[in-house]
Structure formats: C-alpha cells, structure tokens
Amino acid sequence: MRPNAIQIIKDEHLAISAVLYSLRYLVKNMRKGTAPNFPLLKAILDYIVSYPDRWHHPKEDKFLFAAVKRRTKDGDALIARLEREHQLGYPMVETLKLHLLAFQHGDDGARERFFEAAERYAELEWGHLQTEEEQLLPLAERVLTADDWKDIDAAFEENDNPLFGVKPKEEAEAMYQKILSLAPAPIGFGAQSGT
Ligand SMILES: [Fe+2]
Ligand SMILES: [Fe+2]
Prior knowledge:
Blueprint (H helix, E strand, L loop, with lengths): L3 H28 L6 H13 L1 H20 L4 H29 L5 H34 L2 H12 L10 H15 L13
Helix pairs in contact: 1-2, 1-5, 1-6, 2-3, 2-4, 2-7, 3-4, 3-6, 4-5
The structure holds fe (ii) ion (2 copies).
C-alpha cells in the first residue's frame, strides 16, 4: 500500500502550486497595467509563511529526508540541494514581504523589485516541488521500509489531525479561501480590480 505521507505531500504540493500560480498570474497582469490588489498579495504571502514554510518544508527535512539519508547515500547530493532550497526560500518570503510594503508605500523602484522577487521565488519553489516529486519521492519509495514510513506518515498526518489542537490544514484552507475570495476570475471569485 502506498504510504499516506506521499499522498499528503503531493496534495500539499498542489495547494502550494495553486498559490504560486496565483502570485505569478497577478504579477503578469500588474505588469500589463492591472491595479495591484494589496490585500490579496498579502494574503498570498501570509499563506506561504503559515503553511509551506511552517509545516511542509520543515517536516520534509526532519522526517522524510532524514529517513532517506539513513537508508542510502544515493540521495545525498539531491537532498543537500533540496535542503538548501528550503533554507533559501524562507528569507526570500521575508524579502518579498518587505518589497510588498515598499511597493504599497510607492517607494522608487519597489514595484519592479517586488515583481522580480515574486517571479524568482515562484520559479525556485516550482522547480523545487517538481524535483521532489520526480526524484526524491520515487527514491524514498524505493529505499524506505514500512516502519520508516510509519513515523513519516504520523508527522504529515499531524497537519490534519484535530487531536493535536492546532489544525494547520484547516487554517491553511481558511487562508486559501481568503485568497479565492479576494482574487478575481480565473483564480477566485473576488471583484475585478480596475485597470
Ligand atoms: Fe520541499
Ligand atoms: Fe515538498
């Protein structure tokens, strides 16, 4: 039977991709002249800080990558790269938040700096999620035992488990709903912003 953690990780990747897509789509439209929707952009950055950065990537490091490293050396270079990308991602989101504030305050050049940083971040994360799905998860499925998966499953199931009090997934879904309510079609069902 397929480990539950694999499905949870893939589902989380889909949710993260949807948010990254929204971010890139909004930047593309702002470049063409659409007025910035600051509450929406802020909701997107809040989502990234609160869910992928807090619950997804750290659990990969601590449980999935660590288990694979214990079983084989074959993934060492790949895992080092993925860990580095996690470490690169956290400050990038903080920088994005600062660029967004400066953009909102109308600082010189801030608009362009935000666009470039957002595109760079979306590209890095996108490539990262893809590498995990195409290379890391298949390797993990090959080398990990049912016992290894028990701990990894438990760690990822915790994201969605009411017994733990905190329900990160519920919180993430609420934040995602907020993104949808603020974003105009085709992303969400919010009002169209002026051009
Ligand atoms: Fe990751
Ligand atoms: Fe991941």
